[in-house]
Amino acid sequence: MANDNVIKFGKARKSLARVAKDKKSDENRARHGLKKSEKEKRAALAKKMQAKLDAHKRDTDPQNET
Questions:
Q1: Which partner from 19, 23, 39, 58 sits 20 to 30 angstroms from 8, CA to CA?
Q2: What is the pTM (predicted TM-score) of this model?
Q3: pLDDT (tens digit, 9 = 90+) per residue, 13-32?
Protein backbone atom coordinates (compact mmCIF):
# COMPACT_ATOMS: atom_id res chain seq x y z
CA MET A 1 0.00 0.00 0.00
CA ALA A 2 1.56 3.27 -1.13
CA ASN A 3 1.32 6.25 1.19
CA ASP A 4 2.19 8.86 -1.42
CA ASN A 5 -1.51 9.76 -1.93
CA VAL A 6 -2.09 10.70 1.71
CA ILE A 7 -3.56 14.17 2.24
CA LYS A 8 -2.97 15.93 5.51
CA PHE A 9 -6.15 17.82 6.26
CA GLY A 10 -4.45 20.49 8.37
CA LYS A 11 -2.09 21.29 5.54
CA ALA A 12 -4.93 21.36 2.99
CA ARG A 13 -7.03 23.65 5.21
CA LYS A 14 -4.12 26.05 5.68
CA SER A 15 -3.45 26.01 1.95
CA LEU A 16 -7.06 26.93 1.17
CA ALA A 17 -6.98 29.70 3.77
CA ARG A 18 -3.76 31.04 2.25
CA VAL A 19 -5.31 31.11 -1.23
CA ALA A 20 -8.37 32.96 0.07
CA LYS A 21 -6.17 35.45 1.91
CA ASP A 22 -4.09 36.07 -1.23
CA LYS A 23 -7.24 36.66 -3.28
CA LYS A 24 -8.58 39.16 -0.75
CA SER A 25 -5.25 40.97 -0.57
CA ASP A 26 -5.19 41.27 -4.37
CA GLU A 27 -8.66 42.81 -4.33
CA ASN A 28 -7.67 45.26 -1.60
CA ARG A 29 -4.50 46.20 -3.48
CA ALA A 30 -6.57 46.95 -6.57
CA ARG A 31 -9.11 48.96 -4.59
CA HIS A 32 -6.84 50.92 -2.27
CA GLY A 33 -3.56 50.96 -4.14
CA LEU A 34 -4.37 53.89 -6.40
CA LYS A 35 -2.74 57.30 -6.44
CA LYS A 36 -4.85 60.25 -5.36
CA SER A 37 -5.02 61.60 -8.92
CA GLU A 38 -6.23 58.22 -10.21
CA LYS A 39 -8.92 58.05 -7.51
CA GLU A 40 -10.08 61.57 -8.40
CA LYS A 41 -10.13 60.69 -12.10
CA ARG A 42 -12.24 57.57 -11.44
CA ALA A 43 -14.60 59.51 -9.17
CA ALA A 44 -15.04 62.23 -11.80
CA LEU A 45 -15.73 59.63 -14.49
CA ALA A 46 -18.27 57.85 -12.28
CA LYS A 47 -19.98 61.16 -11.51
CA LYS A 48 -20.09 62.06 -15.21
CA MET A 49 -21.53 58.66 -16.15
CA GLN A 50 -24.15 58.88 -13.39
CA ALA A 51 -25.18 62.36 -14.59
CA LYS A 52 -25.53 61.03 -18.13
CA LEU A 53 -27.72 58.17 -16.91
CA ASP A 54 -29.84 60.53 -14.82
CA ALA A 55 -30.32 62.82 -17.84
CA HIS A 56 -31.79 59.94 -19.83
CA LYS A 57 -34.29 58.81 -17.23
CA ARG A 58 -37.93 58.86 -18.23
CA ASP A 59 -40.29 60.87 -16.13
CA THR A 60 -42.99 58.52 -14.85
CA ASP A 61 -44.88 61.09 -12.78
CA PRO A 62 -48.63 60.76 -13.63
CA GLN A 63 -49.21 64.51 -13.13
CA ASN A 64 -47.02 65.34 -16.15
CA GLU A 65 -49.11 63.24 -18.58
CA THR A 66 -51.53 65.99 -19.65
A1: 23
A2: 0.43
A3: 999 999 999 999 999 888 88
